[in-house]
Every structure is written in structure tokens, then in C-alpha cells.
Write a structure and sequence with these properties.
The complex is a heterotrimer. Chain B is an all-alpha fold. Chain B has helices spanning 2-7, 11-32, 45-51, 54-86, 92-99, 101-104, 107-117, 123-130, 144-171, 175-183, 188-216, 220-230, 234-245, 248-272. Chain B has a single domain, classed as MetI-like (MetI-like fold). By secondary structure, chain C is mostly helical. Chain C has a single domain (59-226, 242-261), classed as Orthogonal Bundle (MetI-like fold), CATH 1.10.3720. In chain C, helix 4 runs antiparallel to helix 5 (93-108). The radius of gyration of chain C is 22 Å and the shape is globular. Classes of the chains: A alpha+beta, B mainly alpha, C mainly alpha. Chains in contact: A-C, B-C. The interface between B and C is large, with 93 and 102 residues.
Chain lengths: 355, 276, 266
């Protein structure tokens, strides 16, 4: 149980920068998810923290103690690997007791703690089996148990659910969350699944190209993406992004001309071109005289998904995705998003304009 | 520093190779340039002695011809066996096991049997006699037939290795490819020529290189079948100098020449790697 | 076509079984019969005469003991050297490339070119004809290393590096992770490597012939018995040599044999 601080942590492999200037403080007992596409540096972050790779720069403190020069076993950090890395030649009990054995715990103590944690993750009945005899979900639980049994100061999870079948995933996700709450263990959870990152994290880090794009509560990341990368990466289907011009207090998108309200005008001052972002779910069916950004759906391009309907539409020369609730049999001729639902990003660099 | 530490677990291996591969090789070079009689170094006395010896030149020629013939026969034979036994013949699993039996026999054991097979009153001549033919002198020193007998014996023993290498490569060719070619109208011969053979090329090349380098140091086969002077190669010539004349300088000179030849021919293998 | 193929294969199979059959036949028939003309294909008399003669000849018991001792020491030395090297090669491609190349030489270097300087050196340091075969097992290790390295590297490659990483996070040192996690998992490879290495030494001829002129292990003994015209005795020793060889090769996978033995038999 400790606070973990990363200060300007970086990692280079030859000329390749895997992680640059990573600065983050994970509060005691907090669960921070790290979301990013493959190759974004998220696994590197965990391996640096665990001590499996040396840092190129920066420092990592756990509970106020710098750990970046310590050997893995001296760091009091536990990790659940994507492949679980269960020891195939040991029983479940042997696997869970292994970290305690390495620390010289007494036999009785080992036994008691292994059984405790096995009960916690609901594998108590499997203690005498070997990993090969377990299902994917059971292996995952054993891996959790092995990592938690020694009460690590910091708990690292590397895409722990990616090898589990989809139906099990939601249940295990819930399980991980409850376990983490109950044990109040400081946790970094790496994933490329935004649903996992959003539902599990107290806060989430969006990582791309080895650099932090945004750190915030999941809701805030969705509501106020920090740049066009986050806007396009978080949310399904992704946010629609297209260029627009600002002139004379108005926004020009194709032939549409939208009046910019004064508070927003201030945010856009100084930009002639901006990137406009609008979420697919911001659109609703609209009458001819509706306000806001208007799009014209193409009735032949419609995906019925039951609870919702995805429609392709056009805003000037730009194609946008529209998400309408329910099964829409008759595609409306016009849909519109209110001005307040629009996001603005700098045309140059893609940083968010305004709050 | 971290790079050096990465090599640390390999240190015993590297030290061993330095002591038992590099060091003896260098010592052999030193021996070969040391005059055995006077102890002078450097001296070309050993090379003068060796190159003045007709047996040496026969050994050198034998060391080129014998490996070449061995590789040709064994690779062709191994390929034929692999193709035959890859087909769905009845009992092919048992046949595959039987075909590798000769290689399970230690070299000395196999050669012992071969001496009795090709002796003047041996099993080969008995078989000929039973079929109504006159006996043949299989292993008379210096005869051309002796050369072919030695090649046949080596092939008899080692073809299974080539067979196993090629069988593994053959098994890795997906059936679909041959089936597709069949649908495209290629007959068995053309499927072999245009599909199987090109896909086997890397394996064949490996087999030729490995067997070739191995055959370069052929020693026990000619020695046990024909003695040191019957069908001399560099290895048996060096052994002859060492054990019959006690001339370690000349022995070192001849064997170092063989080593040089071997190393030069090993170099192309280094680029390919040895993964079987 | 199929019928021809079958006939060819059957002929080859017969030829492949013949040497084994003849060794066994000669080992268990009297030497008189082995000298007969025309030679018999099947034994007329079965006898343990050769085996008895062998037991009375001290040199053969010594040879058997020496061969077994040298093979066992070769196994020990080879595994001790090859285990850490194979492990690091499986984990680090750069080291692997280097070691692989170095071992190509160990595997293909002409035996005679090492046996002669090693014999000359061991005369100087007093290891020539060592009753414990000291020079010999040290030399056999060279032939055995590439074999053991290949087999063990394959074993370590099949153990995910993540297992060792997990062990290190769980509190083991690098050596501890190797010892407690990786080593138990490569036990089958270790067994296979031990058996193959034993055979490499057991069967080896060249070094044995040059380094042990007295105190001979079995292969040169067979050679001398053959050369001096003892078909029955030579065949009996040869049959004795077959015991571990055939045993081990029956246990091992054919593919393994092919890969391992390609170019390393002698």
C-alpha cells in the first residue's frame, strides 16, 4: 500500500523511444488504467516499473523510496502477465506459495496465506491442480492470487483479460475491480481495450508514441479529450473529426455557417482553421429548421445493431458517423448536433482549444 | 558492461573452446612448422617431407574425390528414400524405423561388420557365389573398385541421416501445394521437378554442406577397411605419420592442411547458420 | 510404380537390417564358424564362447569400465558447460548467433587435426593413456558440446522468458529463477542431451585411438580385435557396444536424432 510516483521516466531501445517523459503520481489505493494502441509504450512502462528493463532516464518512487536501481525482487512490486506466466511444473498451491517461499516465509504461514488468497479469488478448490488442468478464467485468477499473496506495495497488470473469452471478461473485470477495492492496493492496469480502461480506472492514462496524451477520470477523458488522438481513440464509434474555418465570428463547415457564441468565440480567437470534433451519439433527427451542425444521412448505408443504428452521413464534403438510438427503420433526411456538443482542436498539432 | 555481462553464462563454453579447439589448433600449426629432428622453429622441413611423399598426394586426391562421391551418393540416396517413404506405402512407419537402424550402430561396429562383408571370403562374395558369379576383390589397395566399396560402405551407414533431414523438410511441405499442382494438371514427375525439388532446395543445400564437411574428415572408414595405405585420405595419412613413424611434425602438417581446408569450406555455412 | 517403390524400399530395409544381424550372429557363433567358406548367413551353432573369452581377457573389462567412465565424465562436463550457455542463447539472440557460429567449428573441425596436437600435449603433461581417460573425456566434450547445446537451447526456447521474469518479481534472483523455474521445465531436454552425449563419447573412435594407446576404451579395442583377425571376439565387443546405443536411439524421437546427428557423428 503506497503511493507510486513516476518522474520523467523514459526508455530508449537504440534510436527508438519507447517511453518519453512519463510523469504520473498514482495515489495510495488508486487504480490507474493505461490505455493505448499496441506499441504505445504501455507494456514498457510496466516492465520498467517491475525492473525487467533498465530505465534510460527519470525516477520511480514507491512509498517514497526510489526503486529504479533495485533488482525486481527488491521492489515490492507484483505483476500479472498477459500470458499469466504460471509455473507449469508446480501446482496451483505451489504457484501461489512461490513468492512467499522466496521470501523465506514459514511453511505454516505460507499455507495459511495461500489458502486465504485462494479463497479470495475463488480458486480454493483447485489448489492441488496444475496450470494445464485449469480453464483460462481459472488461470487468470491463480495469476492474480500469486501476485496478491505477498501484499505488494504496487500491483501491475499487463492486459490480464486479453486471453479470456469475451463472455467471461466482463465478470472477471468486475472481480478485479472488487478485489482491488477490498485490498486497497495501488494498481497500474495496462490495456488496449477502452471498455476495460473506462470501467476499471479511477483515472486513466492515454498513451501514444511513448508519450502521455491525457490523464484524467474516464468520464472526463470522454467528455473533454485533450487532443485529436484521444478524441479519435476513446469512444466507439470514434469521434468524427474534420476541418472547418473560423471567420467573422462564424464557423464554416462546407456550405454551413454556424454562429459562434461569445464564450466559445474567445477560445477560437486567433485560429483561422480548426478541427471540429463531434461524437456520433451527439446527433439527433432534426427538422428542416433545426439549429446546430446539420448532417445528411445516406439511407443506403445503415447498420442495424438492435439497440442502436449506425448511419453514414455527410457534412459538406466530409463523411461522418451518426449513432441513433433503437432500430431506425426510416433513416431521417436530416440529423443535427447542437453547437454545445462540438469539440474544437487546433488544426496544427491537434491540441484541444478551451476547456 | 551490460553487454559483457550478458555473455557471462557462456563463459565456460568460450573458455573451453579456447582451451580445446583454438589452443590445440595453434599448437598443431606450431608443430607443423617445427623441424622434428632438430627442433628448429620455424622450419618448412615437415612440409618438404610431406610434399615429397607420393602417399601424401594420393591422400590429398582421395580427400577431394572421396567426400565428393560420398555426398553425391548419400544425398541422392537420402532424397530417393525420403520421397519413397513419404508416400503412403503400407507399413511405412516400420520401414522408416528400419531405414535408420544402420545409423544406430556405432561407427566402429558397423565398420567391423563391413570388413567381414567385403573380405575375400566374406558375405558379399558368398552372395555372388550363390548367384553363380566369380568372387570379387572388393578392398584391394589402390584399385578403383576399392574406392567405390568405401563410398558404398559410408553411404550404407550414413544415408539414414540425410534421409531423416530430407524427410523432415519434405513433411513440412503442405499437402495443399501438391494438390493444387495436381489440379493444375501437373503429373507426378512434374510435381516433383517443379514443386517438391525447389521447396526442398534449402534442406538439400544444408545436407550437401553438412555432409560434405563431415565427409572431409573421413577417417575410420578408409582406415578400418583398407588400412592407412589402401585408400589414403589426409586424416589416415596424418595418423600413419603419427603412429607408424612417430613423426608428430609431419602428422601435424598434414592434419593442419586438412583443418585449413575444412575451415575455409565451413565459412559459407556460418552465414547460413546451422539450424537443422 | 507403387510396386516398384515397395520393392526398392524392402530391399533397402533388408540391407539396413543386415549389419545388425551379422554382428549378433558373429557374436554368438564360434570363431571357427565365422572363418568358414562359404560363410553361414544364419548361425549353425549358438554359443557364449566369445562372451566367455571376453570375460577372461582383462583388457576387455578394463575397456568397458573406461568407456563407461569416460562417457559419464563427458556427460557431466558437457552439461555443466552447455547448460548456462544454452540458456543464455535461448534468451539473447546476439549471444546465440555468436555461440552458434563458434560451435559450427567444434562440430565440423577434423578430429585428427585436434587429436594429434592433443596427443602431443597430453604426452607433455602426462595425461597420455591416462587410466581414467582424462585427456579423452576432455576431448570428447568438444564433440558433445554442439549436440548438448542444440538440444538444451531447444528446451530453453520452449520455456517462456515471462516465467523467469515472474519468478524474479516473485522474489527469486536470476540464478534462482533459472534453478527453480527453467531447469525443472527443461528436464526432458536434459535427459535427451545426457543420453546423446553419452553415446557421442561411447561411440567415438578417432580421439580414443590416438589418446589411449594403452588403457583402451571399447572402440579402438574393437578395431584392434578386427585388425588382428578375431571376428567372434570383435563382434562380441561390438554387440556389447550396441547395448546403450540401440537403447538410447529407440527412446529418442527420429527428428531429434536427425537434427542432432547431422554432421556430428564422428
Amino acid at each position: 500500500m503506497a503511493r507510486a510516483e513516476f518522474e520523467r521516466v523514459s526508455k530508449r531501445f537504440g534510436d527508438v523511444v519507447a517511453l518519453a517523459d512519463f510523469t504520473l503520481a498514482v495515489e495510495d489505493g488508486e487504480l490507474v488504467t493505461v490505455l493505448g494502441p499496441s506499441g504505445c509504450g504501455k507494456s514498457t512502462l510496466l516492465r520498467l516499473t517491475a525492473g525487467l528493463e533498465p530505465l534510460s532516464g527519470g525516477t520511480i518512487r514507491v512509498g517514497g523510496r526510489s526503486i529504479e536501481r533495485l533488482a525486481p525482487h527488491e521492489r515490492d512490486v507484483a505483476m500479472v502477465f498477459q500470458s499469466y506466466a504460471l509455473y507449469p511444473h508446480m501446482t496451483v498451491r505451489g504457484n501461489i506459495e512461490f513468492p512467499l517461499r522466496m521470501r523465506g516465509a514459514a511453511r505454516e504461514d505460507r499455507r495459511r496465506r495461500a489458502e486465504e488468497v485462494a479463497a479470495l479469488v475463488e480458486v480454493a478448490a483447485l489448489l492441488d491442480r496444475r496450470p494445464a488442468e485449469l480453464s483460462g478464467g481459472q488461470r487468470q485468477r491463480v495469476a492474480l492470487a500469486r501476485a496478491l499473496v505477498r501484499h505488494p506495495a504496487l500491483f501491475l497488470l499487463d492486459e490480464p483479460l486479453s486471453n479470456v473469452d469475451a463472455p467471461l471478461r466482463a465478470a472477471l473485470r468486475q472481480h478485479v475491480r472488487e478485489l482491488q477495492r477490498r485490498l486497497e492496493v495501488t494498481t497500474l492496469y495496462v490495456t488496449h481495450e477502452q471498455a476495460e480502461a473506462m470501467t476499471l480506472g479511477d483515472r486513466m492514462v492515454v498513451l501514444d508514441g511513448g508519450r502521455i496524451q491525457q490523464v484524467d477520470a474516464p468520464g472526463a477523458v470522454y467528455e473533454r479529450p485533450a487532443n485529436t488522438f484521444v478524441a479519435g481513440f476513446v469512444g466507439t464509434p470514434p469521434m468524427n473529426l474534420f476541418g472547418a474555418e473560423v471567420a467573422d465570428g462564424a464557423l464554416r463547415v462546407g456550405e454551413q455557417r454556424l454562429d459562434v457564441p461569445p464564450p466559445v468565440r474567445e477560445r477560437l480567437s486567433g485560429s483561422r482553421r480548426v478541427v471540429v470534433g463531434v461524437r456520433p451519439e451527439a446527433f439527433t433527427a432534426a427538422r428542416e429548421d433545426a439549429d446546430g451542425l446539420v448532417a445528411r444521412p445516406d439511407p443506403t448505408r445503415r447498420e442495424l445493431l438492435g439497440a442502436e443504428t449506425i448511419v453514414c452521413a455527410r457534412v459538406g464534403e466530409h463523411e461522418v458517423t451518426v449513432r441513433l438510438p433503437g432500430s431506425v427503420d426510416e433513416v431521417p433526411t436530416r440529423v443535427a448536433a447542437p453547437f454545445g456538443a462540438l469539440h474544437f482542436f487546433a488544426a496544427d498539432g491537434g491540441a484541444r482549444l478551451g476547456p | 558492461m551490460p553487454r559483457l555481462r550478458a555473455w557471462a553464462p557462456a563463459a565456460p563454453l568460450l573458455l573451453y573452446l579456447a582451451a580445446f579447439l583454438v589452443q590445440p589448433s595453434l599448437y598443431a600449426v606450431k608443430l607443423s612448422f617445427t623441424d622434428t629432428l632438430t627442433g628448429h622453429f620455424p622450419s618448412l622441413a615437415n612440409f618438404r617431407l610431406v610434399t615429397g611423399d607420393g602417399l601424401f598426394w594420393r591422400a590429398l586426391a582421395g580427400n577431394v574425390l572421396l567426400p565428393a562421391a560420398i555426398v553425391a551418393v548419400e544425398v541422392a540416396g537420402g532424397l530417393a528414400l525420403a520421397v519413397l517413404l513419404a508416400a503412403r506405402l503400407p507399413g511405412r512407419r516400420l520401414l522408416r524405423a528400419i531405414v535408420v537402424v544402420p545409423f544406430a550402430l556405432p561407427e566402429v561396429v558397423f565398420l567391423t561388420v563391413m570388413r567381414y562383408v567385403f573380405a575375400p571370403r566374406g558375405y558379399a562374395n558368398a552372395a555372388l557365389a550363390a548367384a553363380g558369379f566369380a568372387p570379387v576383390d572388393w578392398l584391394v589397395p589402390g584399385r578403383v573398385l576399392t574406392f567405390f566399396t568405401v563410398v558404398a560402405v559410408d553411404a550404407w551407414h550414413v544415408t539414414p541421416v540425410v534421409f531423416l533431414m530430407l524427410l523432415a523438410a519434405l513433411a513440412s511441405i503442405p499437402d495443399e501445394i501438391a494438390e493444387a499442382a495436381r489440379l493444375d494438371g501437373a503429373g507426378a514427375l512434374r510435381r516433383f521437378a517443379f514443386i517438391t525439388l525447389p521447396l526442398l532446395r534449402p534442406a538439400l543445400l544444408s545436407a550437401v554442406l553438412l555432409r560434405g564437411l563431415d565427409a572431409l574428415r573421413v577417417f575410420a572408414t578408409p582406415l578400418m577397411l583398407t588400412g592407412a595405405e589402401g585408400l589414403p585420405v589426409l586424416s589416415t595419412y596424418a595418423y600413419h605419420q603419427w603412429s607408424d613413424y612417430g613423426n608428430d611434425g609431419a602428422a601435424a602438417a598434414a592434419s593442419s592442411l586438412l583443418a585449413l581446408l575444412s575451415v575455409v569450406l565451413t565459412l559459407p555455412l556460418l552465414r547460413r547458420g546451422t539450424a537443422p | 510404380m507403387r510396386r516398384i517403390a515397395l520393392l526398392v524400399v524392402l530391399a533397402v530395409a533388408a540391407a539396413d537390417l543386415l549389419p545388425l544381424g551379422l554382428v549378433l550372429k558373429q557374436a554368438f557363433t564360434p570363431e571357427r564358424e565365422s572363418f568358414a567358406w562359404p560363410p553361414t548367413w544364419l548361425p549353425r551353432t549358438l554359443t557364449l564362447e566369445n562372451v566367455r573369452t571376453l570375460r577372461e581377457a582383462v583388457e576387455i573389462e578394463g575397456g568397458l569400465g573406461l568407456s563407461a567412465l569416460v562417457a559419464a565424465l563427458t556427460v557431466a562436463a558437457t552439461l555443466a558447460i552447455a547448460l548456462p550457455a544454452a540458456w543464455v542463447a535461448a534468451r539473447r539472440p546476439a549471444v546465440d548467433r555468436g555461440l552458434d557460429r563458434a560451435l559450427v567449428f567444434a562440430r565440423l573441425f577434423p578430429t585428427i587435426a585436434l587429436a594429434i596436437p592433443l596427443a602431443a600435449l597430453s604426452i607433455r603433461v602426462g595425461l597420455y593413456n591416462s587410466p581414467l581417460g582424462t585427456g579423452l573425456w576432455l576431448a570428447h566434450t568438444l564433440l558433445a558440446l554442439p549436440v548438448a547445446f542444440l538440444v538444451l537451447r531447444g528446451g530453453f526456447r520452449s520455456v517462456p522468458a515471462e516465467l523467469e521474469e515472474a519468478a524474479r518479481l516473485d522474489g527469486a534472483s536470476t540464478a534462482g529463477a533459472f534453478w527453480r523455474v527453467s531447469l525443472p521445465l527443461v528436464r526432458p531436454s536434459l535427459a535427451a542431451a545426457s543420453m546423446l552425449v553419452f553415446l557421442v563419447s561411447w561411440d567415438e573412435f578417432g580421439f580414443s585411438l590416438l589418446l589411449q594407446v594403452t588403457n583402451r576404451p571399447l572402440p579402438p579395442l574393437v578395431y584392434y580385435l578386427t585388425a588382428f583377425g578375431h571376428p567372434g571376439l570383435a563382434s562380441a565387443v561390438a554387440a556389447l557396444m550396441l547395448v546403450p546405443a540401440v537403447g538410447v536411439l529407440l527412446v529418442l524421437e527420429p527428428a531429434l536424432r536427425a537434427g542432432v546427428f547431422a554432421g556430428s557423428g564422428r
